[in-house]
## 1
Amino acid sequence: MSLSIRNQIAGTVTAVTTGEAMATVKVRLDGGQDITAAITADAVKDLGLAVGTAVKALVKATEVALATGPVEGLSGLSIRNRIAGTVVDVATGPAMASVKVDVNGGGLTAAITADAVEALGLAAGTSVVALIKATEVSLQTA
């Protein structure tokens, strides 16, 4: 199956916490980073997700925000997925930009405004933290 979602990162489920309607699924990405997906309990069942299941974490580029300063600890920000990386390429148009980030052997693409690229001073070699809400992470079984 082909998808338009650029960010498709392989990993393994490390924890599943299921509630009445929703669940959180923690995934250890192949590069060693952790990411959490908030999906429906029905999706957990339909996909047969359990600890050890191989998955791909899928994230649209428009759902990836970038920070250039420290984003430490869990206080002060509700976004739990914070993945450190280094910018490897920036393609800027008049309004929007595509920023490719190396995240320990994997890659993420962020679609952000050209103004944000300028304000943050993003260029190849810039250290960043990719921020992704758990509700914006989908999972696909491998």
Note: The beta strands are 7-18, 22-29, 34-40, 54-59, 65-67, 81-92, 96-103, 106-113, 127-132, 138-141.
## 2
Amino acid sequence: METSQSSEPCTSPSPPVPGDTVCDLVTVPARQGLEAVDILRRAAADAVGPVLHDDDRDTLGFLVPAGTAAGWDVPGSTCTETNGRGLRLAPEPPVAGADWLLPPGEEDDLATDPAVLREALGEAARLIEAADKCC
């Protein structure tokens, strides 16, 4: 599997508030998301951008470039536009009740490549299905 981090910034040409970031957010069940993170990190350390973990909802959220939501069709996941909601890539998570699983780094304007994430989520789903069948 080819892995890369999108070189597209998460910022819009004119963000609503300085320091706010416009990305889309792919949300998946935590089990599948954690498996996908492992797959991405094994393939290449920089293949995955910032990831949020929401304990209350038992989900993981991957930051992807703005515009991804328009064509996102991966079963078991949702992709939400954050445009205009003021997502901040700061040490503090942008969502109440969530924590950074993988916090934004020095290159916090880079998001996970949606094509690479799609492949990793598919592989994660297959691995989970196989594990559940054997036990």
Note: The longest helix spans residues 114-134.
## 3
Amino acid sequence: MGVVELLLAGLVILLGLCGVLLPGVPGSWLVWAGVLWWALTDPRPVAWSVLVGATVVLLLSQAVRWALPPRRLRASGATRRLAVFAGAGAFLGFVLIPVVGAIPGFMGGIYLAERLRLGRHGEAVASLRTAMRSGGSSVLAELFACLLVAAAWLGAVIAG
């Protein structure tokens, strides 16, 4: 697989990660499609292993999302700014504290956005609870699964 194809597959995966935070965009499907495209053009066995692992992780995340409350974030007052802060926090947490840091990073991003908007600690914590109850946990489950798949893909590409 050439550099251009790798960059395009990475771009599809990145768009999928952003799509998790945007309503109506099939984020996890785009992440899976990027890994599938890479696996179909890379003949090494590690590519197929990553594809199988990605399929299992994303199917499990869909099952977990069924058990969680449906997404009603817009009704709770969530804004695009909140989604950007939550996504950036999850990404930074995932990088700073590998894998498990995405969870506190996501919640920290929501808290920071609400603290800047509302100005007080108590109100920001209450807003964080509301956001997580009204679908934030569902978004977090899908984003965490997609981050795991993206990290596995990136690790396989770098390992070579």
Note: The mean pLDDT is 88.
